[in-house]
Design goal:
globular, 12 helices, mainly alpha
Amino acid sequence: MSERIVEEAPNRPGRKEMNPIVKFALELGPLVVFFFANNRGKAIAEAVPALGALGGPLFVATALFMLATVVSLTVSWIMVRTLPIMPIVSGVVVVVFGTLTLWLQDEVFIKMKPTIVNGLFAAVLLGGLAFGKPLLGYVFDQAFKLDNEGWRKLTLRWGLFFVFLAVLNEVVWRLFSTDFWVAFKVWGTMPITIAFMLAQFPLLKRHATEPLFDTKK
């Protein structure tokens, strides 16, 4: 029964699809804000005393990162009237850990945010597989159609990739400077993720039950 559900996930008529470029910009936007706010934190603090009262550059960047994340999610909701589970989880963790960072004046909370988010995603995906449920089949059924073996393999790969990202974040923030961690979070993690996604195309092609790019849709 579970295999049939995954292989023939129900279509959701009327669901709006966001332009991929716009979607990428909305996802990357808060990270870019975080990076530049950290680099220019002193100047921003001088220009906006209320932000300067929060603390050093990373605290200013954290506050603007939280704001940019909320704006990004709001714009996404206005455009398509729905929010994928991953951005929601990430946004909630950003707000919670960002608030703890500012309230307790402790950088550790915002630095551990990627570890927590990636760890949660890994636990959900790998845990689902342990119970015979490749959950990516429910998340990405509108993007492409795969057979059940394809969903299992893709779910396993993404689960392990999230484990890798969680471990990588811990290594970087614990062993390197704050500025290096911020730069790596934006300009390192994103390219690594894009490269991983591109590397999955052979698997998608092998297990696709419909053309990956159907121009008639």
